[in-house]
Amino acid sequence: MPTRKFETVISLRDIKVACQECSLKEICLPVGIGQEDLDRLDAIIDRKRPLARGDHLFRVGDGFQSIYAVRSGSLKTYTTSQDGQEQVMGFQLPGELVGLDAIAEDSHPLAAKALETTSVCEIPFTDLESLSGQIGGLQRQLLRVMSQEIRDDEHNMVILGQKSAEQRLAAFLISLSNRFRRRGFSATQFNLSMSRSDIGNYLGLALETVSRLFTRFQNEGLLRVDRKHIELLDREKLCTYSGAQCAEDDVLQAEPNN
Amino acid sequence: MPTRKFETVISLRDIKVACQECSLKEICLPVGIGQEDLDRLDAIIDRKRPLARGDHLFRVGDGFQSIYAVRSGSLKTYTTSQDGQEQVMGFQLPGELVGLDAIAEDSHPLAAKALETTSVCEIPFTDLESLSGQIGGLQRQLLRVMSQEIRDDEHNMVILGQKSAEQRLAAFLISLSNRFRRRGFSATQFNLSMSRSDIGNYLGLALETVSRLFTRFQNEGLLRVDRKHIELLDREKLCTYSGAQCAEDDVLQAEPNN
DNA sequence: CGATGACTTGACTGCTGTCAACGTGCGTGG
DNA sequence: CCACGCACGTTGACAGCAGTCAAGTCATCG
Q1: Which CATH number among 3.60.21.10, 2.40.10.120, 3.40.50.150, 2.60.120.10 corresponds to the domain A12-148?
Q2: A140 near A29, Cβ under 8 Å?
Q3: N or C terminus: fewer CB in 10 A for chain B?
Q4: Inter-chain contact B243–A83, Cβ cutoff 8 Å?
Q5: A163-254: which CATH number, 6.10.250.3280, 3.40.630.30, 3.40.50.2300, 1.10.10.10?
Q6: How far is the CA of B208 from the C1' of C10 (A)?
Q7: Which residues contact A219 (CB under 8 A, 6 or more apart)?
Q8: Distance from residue A209 (CA) to nucleotide D13 (C1'), in Å?
Q9: Confidence of residue B23 (pLDDT cuts 50, 70, 90)
Q10: What letter would DSSP give residue A63?
């Protein structure tokens, strides 16, 4: 382990970032919360200094203190089964929360690791809990977020349960595309911060299968792939491949309040 | 559709069942709630008349009004993809909640159908929400229950993502066994209220594979199976087969407060 | 008692995993 | 600046698990 040379050099807490200025506030927790309530939420949130690629935000079994929101960068969550085999459970992009599964048992069932330089907001749970008892909108939003998480997991179960390798990768790419779009990034061009192995693991496929499919999709003109960079050329057909109601449905889901 | 002949014959609401008398209260919502608060929770819960096998509690797209707790019997939740193909998402046993995934979008993403004669408690969500704003313990418990749901879904993803057919069925049987035990039923002998087809669908397997595995497990002396009835003869080995930390871990998880 | 649906069993196929070799980009150190 | 090593990614050959198709058995119910 290297020594933590940053800590005494500069206090990164000085960086002025608050929920109200955050470009992610429309998709993070503060949806439908008034100005003064937003201030109160903001007051309990701690901006941590960035994680480097490979750093852990928390590990399996760590005591549960806080929920985290990704501000920039990306995370993967995963477990390691007793035979040492890793299972990737998900990837978190900016505006997405991590750690909701730790509430039940007061300890993290998954580890969270930064896939690239990543900054997160730490939200101490006891504070969040008492605040959401006072602010109706916050309580509601918290329940909604958790409900959405359940929904997403159910969606993943469908994919893992009955989709072919081709459908899984197509669905994965469409999902990423939708999530990037919602965050204001390009829906057709983005970087994969995770490895082929992580993707395969997440989708229940061998990494070789993922690699082969990327090649095939490219040959079919569906996308262009160069190492980590992806460009979706035929989003429409990719949707068809994924065998799901994806395209416009997700847009609607993404903006329920408009 | 048959006419609803029961409705005017007898008011089943007269049946005296309340949370405080309910044998399931230790595993349903009212954990860690005081007596008078329990009364208040009890007041908002509606005991519906039993569902017959095949009846729907709700369907995909139904507006979200309430969460339901199974009192007796069992449910399956499922979606139907646009090509008419069904995906079973889960089975609910007594003491388990259904409908938590509907909070996010105010409509049910899954349908819930009774696998046998089943009675449920209906918990109107707006009431629950406002009550949980007033009762700290209830809010906490609600969040815990949702968190646990996320956790369970993650567990299912591991099973679907990287377990063999044999491991999946073994894990499924162990899971059922644990859930029955927790509810005070036998952990080694129970009835499967769902069909082979439902099990296969849920586990991402063909129903023929499920059937073959039952036969094989029986030949290996792991269990005895007669149509719907299951008797686990070697729970230990079944755990090993499932390739997971199951047996005693689940007991601990089941009783976190003892 | 026949019909229907659920389940079982068998034969065959194919998708995807495994093993293995090779290519490519990047960072390190000479 | 170049050479090297390493991690990551690609491609190929082969095999096996589980799906599909099909036939047959069993239980339940009208």
Answers
A1: 2.60.120.10
A2: no
A3: N
A4: yes
A5: 1.10.10.10
A6: 11
A7: none
A8: 15
A9: confident
A10: B
> How far apart, in Å, are the Cα atoms of A116 and each of A56, A72, A79, A99, A119?
11, 9, 19, 19, 10
Question: The pTM is what?
Answer: 0.88
Percent of chain A with pLDDT over 70: 88
pLDDT digits (tens, 9 = 90+) for A111-150: 999 999 999 999 999 999 999 888 888 899 999 999 999 9
Angstrom distance (rounded) from CA A67 to CA B27: 25
Within 7 Å of a protein beta carbon, the nucleotides of strand C are 6-11, 15-20, 25-26
| Chain A residues touching residue B108 (CB < 8 angstroms) | none
In angstroms, what separates the C-alpha of B98 from chain A's closest C-alpha? Answer: 12
Chain B residues touching residue A82 (CB < 8 angstroms): 244-245
Residue B115 backbone zone (phi > 0: left; psi -120 to 50: alpha; other: beta) = alpha
In chain A, positions 154-213 with C-beta closer than 7 Å to nucleic chain D are 195-197, 207-208, 210-212
**DSSP codes, B221-240:** TSEEEETTEEEES-HHHHHH
Domain ranges of chain B: 12-148, 163-254
Could you give the C-alpha distances from A148 to A141, A161, B107, B178, in angstroms and in order? Answer: 10, 20, 12, 27
